[in-house]
Amino acid sequence: MKNYVITIARGYGSGGRTIGQMLAKELNIPYYDRELMRLASDESGINEELFAKADEKVKQSLLFKIARKEYNGELIPPDKEEFVSNDNLFAYQAKVIKDLAAEGPCVIVGRCADYILRDLPHAVRLYIHAPLADCVARTEGKLPGDAKEREKQILAIDKRRAAYYKYYTGNEWTDAGNYDLCLNTNHLDYETCVKITKSFLEIIPERV
Prior knowledge:
Distance between the termini: 15 Å
CATH architecture: 3-Layer(aba) Sandwich
Mean pLDDT: 82
Structural class: alpha/beta
CATH superfamily: P-loop containing nucleotide triphosphate hydrolases
């Protein structure tokens, strides 16, 4: 198996996080999701709670409807007022993602990792999706409310994810052109998604 870094973008309720965990276990490589906030906190010295609050603020803000701040890799130094701004918190998470990818193979979920690692030859970018009805069914017991209420929440979450992605990358989150492999979990169970991804890693040409 080649030493690929696998990034996973996913619709809410599609099973992308579970597939990422299963894939990391199958390949015996590290898995990163929310741990990225802790690692970015360690890297920057900024309290981890600020990363969590910024993440939550992003979800509740209309900022991404009216502005765009495409990620350029720049870090704001501690002596600047914008050091703890949302954009700088994102930049530190991006630095952590790049550092993890440089260390060796791993699975990274969300946080625009596919875009951040777009120039990395051995990055493989996955997008996991499913029809809305499937996502609603899968979130029973995980999101509050009945099916209609869960549907509204899923649509809102995915809308915010798309806006977040657009804001920092300039691209459309659901555009298949952003990814190397798109998997629909309406047609494929999680185990099959893992098998397909492993097979894909074996057959794609070495990228250097």
